Amino acid sequence: MSIVLSISRRRNSYNLLNHPRFLRRFSVDVDPAPVVKSDSQEFLVVRFLENLRKTPQDDWSSNESLSSLLVSFNSSSSFVSPLVFSQITRRLGSYSLAVSFFEYLDANSQSLKRREEFLSLTFQSVLELAGSEPDSRDKILRLYEIAREKNIPLTVVATKLLIRWFARMGMVNQSVLVYERIDSNMKNTQVRNVMIDVLLKNGLLDDAFKVLDEMLQEESVFPPNRITADIVLHEVWKGRLLKEEELIGLISRFSSHCVSPNSVWLTRFITSLCKNARSNVALEILTDLMKNKAPLEAPPFNALLSCLGRNMDIGRINGLVAKMDEMKIRPDVVTLGILINTLCKSRRVDEALQVFEQMCGKITDGGNVIKADSIHFNTLIHGLCKVGRMKEAEELLIRMKMEESCPPNTITYNCLIDGYCRAGQIETAKEVVSRMKEDGIKPSMVTVNTIVGGICRYHGVNMAVVFFTDMEREGVKGNVVTYMILIHACCSVSNIEKAMHWFDKMLEAGCSPDAKIYYALISGLCQVRRDQDVIRVVEKLKQGGFSLDLLAYNMLIGLFCDKNNAEKVYEMLSEMEEAGMKPDSITYNTLISFFGRHKDFESVEKMMEQMREDGLDPTAVTYGAVMEAYCSAGELNEATKLFKDMGLRSKVNANTVVYNILINAFSELGNLEQALSLKEEMKQKMVRPNVETYNALFKCLKEKNQAETLLKLMDEMVEQSCEPNQITMEILMERLSGSDELVKLRKFMQGYSVASKASSFDLP
After folding, report:
1. Cβ atoms within 10 Å of 144's Cβ, excluding its own
2. Which sign does the torsion angle of CA 399, 401, 402, 406 carry?
3. C-alpha span between 144 and 171 (Å, rounded)
4. How far apart are CA 398 and CA 381, in angstroms?
């Protein structure tokens, strides 16, 4: 049976092998070697090269085959590309053969119809070969002279090569000659870019800008392109060849031709402008580029958005983002981070959440998908915790756990812990620590310090110590911040003995005792006005080999001024003088405030005089101290007069504290109109009101018919990202006692507007 099968298989194989299709498939004639058609340009190139190689160079002119081939190039029956002779030249592979062939072609091509074009391209190929020769300088010079003698027009490529090579050989003047000698129609954008690059790199700024100015003309035949901008802006920035204003003007001129600097350079320049407090100019540049429809990407906008975010300029941020969307400039993951970070810091958490949902999943210019990471989630969680929206923060944590790419980390849990501690929910904060451990995340020192600080604020030092001790057993050691929290807490309840105990424990724990530690203790003791204890600590500091600095002396002078201990004040001033330290503005301001409180305005004037003699101009703090003294003495007119003189004569701009002194004084007198007028003046002069400003105004609004004004001011606080404090809440709870009003108060605490009747929010 196996033999039959074998025979059958052989028969089938024989039939298959003899099948016509199979024979054609495996025939040697099926895939023949490529045949060059006799009338093709490649055929002519191959034939020409064969004849050139087998004929001695001296006999090329007399060779009939070469002459015949050359005549065939003139045939009208087929089109012959000028690149044919360029290909032949390159394939010769030798510079000397290439030169000989160029000379042969020059001598024997008189009858060629497109002789100039053939010679130009052949010359270009010879030039390319010369550039790779060891002694290229002389050869390139000689070739250029031949081109000039024989009046051979240069190609664009040959022109660019000559300009660059001469510049590299230190012959910039020769580069300039090459450029000046070519026809104007040859000076296209490519050639000009090379010329500008060479001139700038050789420090010939004026010459480079003459070439550039021609390109930047409104009706320029050869306008600039992106490469022009890259060359010019890179070189002038690297060499600091132009002033900032000149650079701005240059970008504007490029923009008029719809040319934008490359994204990296533009981002760097926008960042530089923002660092120099010129964000307005940066915005104008980007707006101009967008108006002219120059191609732009997200990074330069991110640089400006980051600056506006630091200044909490939400209005301009919204405007810029809207413009980006209108011009189809796609944001990226960095844009997302900047926006949600700024909005959360401004307590606009709802807007941050909206941006987060809108941008996640979008495609960037680079083709990437915007994916939220742990930083984005942590920012939102921190923002929600700041306004007490803990339930939503916990929901985001659950969402993080569901995302594979951004699991919660130590920072996530620390944000939640901080939120619960801010709300006084210490036990819940401890529960978060337990959950954190269950998820395999080890508590950090920030975790410990946050809860220790929270316990100290709400439950006292003893409970904080218990928690801290438990954490130490688990291996989490305290650091300087931990001990300073405990020391400060002890000082705040006047338990100096316990404060010193923790100071000693800090030393035992291996925290290096340096001046900062002593200064922190001195600061804490000064804050709780423990003058005798602070004297002991100063003595201990000196025994440890440290000396007080100006900051410490200012703290001590401030303490003794508050204690009305003039003798100690003069003692500190004498010590400063012996140590070679001169009083600074803080020292003088403290003394001026001291004399002001005692209504010793004669000494106040002497101090201000002495201050000027020491080369220190009175600051806003100085004027504030004197104005506060006048206000406390009932001399409001004098305070107002000084306020006006401050800007006119001394050219010192009033700050928030100065305005608050007057607003508070007018509010206490019940003069709401004047207080509100000062608040509006703050806005006009770009001085940000703070929580003390609004607290002073809230105190003045006692009447029922002033409820609308109260709500409007609350909305202003939200818009200004001004976070209310405990005093705010106490005042508002007195003013808003009705059930509906308490709901509005709750909305206000969570960052919502409350004055508009059209606005309604579902509270969590």
Report:
1. 22
2. positive
3. 13
4. 11
Query: The tokens 């010359």 sit on which residue?
Result: 123
pTM: 0.62
One DSSP character per residue, 681-749 reads HHHHTTPPP-HHHHHHHHHH--SGGGHHHHHHHHHHHHHTT----HHHHHHHHHH--SHHHHHHHHHHH
Burial 101-138 (b: 16+ CB within 10 A, else e): bbbbbbeebeebeebebbbbbbbbbbbbbbbeeeebbe
Q: Is it the case that residue 336 has pLDDT exceeding 70?
A: yes
Q: Is the domain covering 585-741 a CATH 1.25.40.10 domain?
A: yes
Distance CA 658, CA 623 (A): 8
Q: Which residues lie closer than 8 Å to 314 by C-beta, 6 or more apart? A: 342, 343, 346, 348, 721
Q: Helix, strand, or coil here: 655?
A: coil
End-to-end CA separation in angstroms for the chain: 87
Task: Give me the phi and psi of 363, to 5 degrees please.
Answer: -95, 135
Residue 570: half-sphere exposure toward Cβ, Cα within 13 Å: 3
Residue-wise pLDDT for 289-321, tens only, equals 999 888 899 999 999 999 999 888 888 999 999
Asked if 556 and 529 touch (Cβ cutoff 8 Å), the reply is no
| CB within 8 Å of 509: residues ≥ 6 apart | 477, 478, 483
Evaluate whether 312 touches 339 at the Cβ level (below 8 Å): no
Q: What is the DSSP string of 362-374?
A: PBPTTS-B----H
